What we know:
Chain A is mainly α. Chain A has helices spanning 3-11, 22-35, 44-70, 75-96, 98-131. Classes of the chains: A mainly alpha (132), B mainly alpha (188).
Amino acid sequence: MRDDDLDRILYNEQVIVPSSGFVVAVMDAVRRESLAPSPIPFPWKRALPGLFAAGVALVSIFVAGIAMFIQGTTSQLFMSQLQSLFAPIFERCNTLGAGWITFALIVSIASAKLSMHLATRKTRIVDKANAR
Amino acid sequence: MGAAEDQTCVAKVLSGDSSTFEGIVRRWQGPLVNLAYRFCRDRGRAEELAQEAFLRAYRSLDRWRREAAFSTWLFALATNLYCSELRRIPVRTVPLDDVAEPRDLRGADRGLENEDRDRLVRRAAFALPPKYREALILFYFHDMDIPSTARSLGLPQGTVKARLSRGREMLRSKLSQRLVSLQLTKEA
Lengths: 132, 188
């Protein structure tokens, strides 16, 4: 089969006309969308210092690890150095209750994700029902 | 309604008059529903997909950069949505090797023969792997214009050309066996 034949066949596709209620269904969905309160934006300004600090900490740990390997330290020495590096951090985390804060954050994120997922699914079901 | 009117509508919607969006929906409903139909071959699902595309366009109108035509942005957004939705919930496609043979055309007129052959070609094209199928669908939807196809898919033109070429090659090799057998049946 030649390219021309393929082009002719695939180009001449059936054209369908949208159903009469299509525009109304879309505009109903748009109206609902415009009436819904706008989502609360993520507080980037407040989160940025924390994110930056976390990034710096991660990079420095990574760099320190690589540097220790390059210097040819034994694994035992490396472990002890790692322990001495992390010990004050863990101690500080314990006094601040970092474990509980992390747990609370995870629970908050999970509940927010679940409610967003349920809300999106409900909107889709309503949209489909309206479209029909 | 032309490109300038699209721009006016968008400006009005962004200033808070959401009812103006109806003009955009009326203008682009045909192309968007037809594009979705080419992707899924199901009228109901095509309208659902097109509705979701309009809703997504409404939500992200402020992200349309004016240097590209509104239609280019809208088609890229719709294509992205259709591809991801159809990958999430795929349409039941018949594997290329299972595409039905055309019926025996001995004694049938030329029109019926062509009709069967065309149907076979379309079904075979629909059974191609997604990346080749998507390139072919958009290429023919955009009147065989490679730059528009590339913009809709968000891919370099070279990649689109390669996918079109490979897709056609796959189609030809699969179809040639079937069309030869059809020819032999006809001559017997």
